[in-house]
Design goal:
Layout: H1 6-11, H2 15-29, H3 36-43, H4 47-51, H5 57-74, H6 82-99, H7 102-108, H8 114-129, H9 134-159, H10 168-180, H11 188-192, H12 194-199, H13 202-217, H14 222-225
Length: 226
């Protein structure tokens, strides 16, 4: 029985292999590190072989984003209330941005590509299921999406900042100590929040923000109830 040589296996490319390698490069070196030269070296092939499957860096970024977000959304539990479904989508996207920091920038970049539209659609259907008035559904869905992408991107940046080398708790302790020393008149609220900063859990705070938006969506102003 003949065997395919390791060299021949390296030459056999698929679109999925190219995208998987692009994800690895993006995770390791960010968007600037994703070049066709680096990708060709990683896959031990030539530019032409890669471009047979993916024509441009922009297409690679879109495909890589679609892949990692689809994996996260594919693990969602579809059972439960509309609120539960929105929380599941929110946490799925939050976690994938934390794991792959470049995803947040891609999802926020205009014009929205299929991944952002898919998330927008998933959230929007649940907003409709909550009975939010038609003229408020776009605003509600947009507010949720902005919170999800923004908070996820901020968390990813914080986790990879130079200060993060201290360790999360030490960094928060030092930051909270600085807040506590701020001018008591100019920063009255910030000083009072220093203790909360020191002890907070990022995912819990993120979900609390989602819940605040959801709570507002289920309220009806008095003039609408009459």
């Amino acid at each position: 029985m003949s065997r395919t040589s390791p060299h021949a296996e390296r030459k056999t490319l698929t679109r999925r292999r190219v995208i998987d390698a692009a994800v690895e490069l993006l995770d390791a070196a960010g968007e600037d590190g994703l070049t066709f030269r680096a990708l060709a070296a990683k896959l031990e092939t030539g530019h032409g072989a890669i471009q047979w499957h993916v024509a441009s860096k922009g297409e690679l970024l879109v495909a890589a984003t679609e892949l990692v977000v689809a994996r996260a959304l594919g693990r969602m539990d579809s059972a439960g209330s509309p609120q539960d479904a929105i929380r599941a989508v929110a946490l799925g996207v939050f976690d994938v941005i934390e794991a792959h920091p470049w995803v947040g920038a891609q999802m926020a970049r205009p014009p929205w590509h299929a991944t952002s539209l898919e998330v927008f659609e998933l959230i929007g259907r649940q907003v409709q299921a909550l009975g939010v008035p038609t003229d408020a559904q776009f605003t509600a869905t947009s507010a949720l999406l902005v919170h999800i992408i923004g908070a996820g991107s901020q968390q990813a940046r914080n986790a990879r900042s130079p200060e993060a080398a201290l360790g999360r708790q030490e960094f928060l302790d030092q930051l909270a100590a600085r807040w506590a020393e701020l001018d008591s008149e100019q920063y009255r609220f910030t000083r009072a929040a220093a203790g909360r900063l020191r002890d907070h859990d990022d995912r819990v705070e993120f979900l609390a923000g989602v819940d605040l938006i959801l709570a507002g969506l289920t309220l009806r102003p008095e003039h609408e109830e009459r």
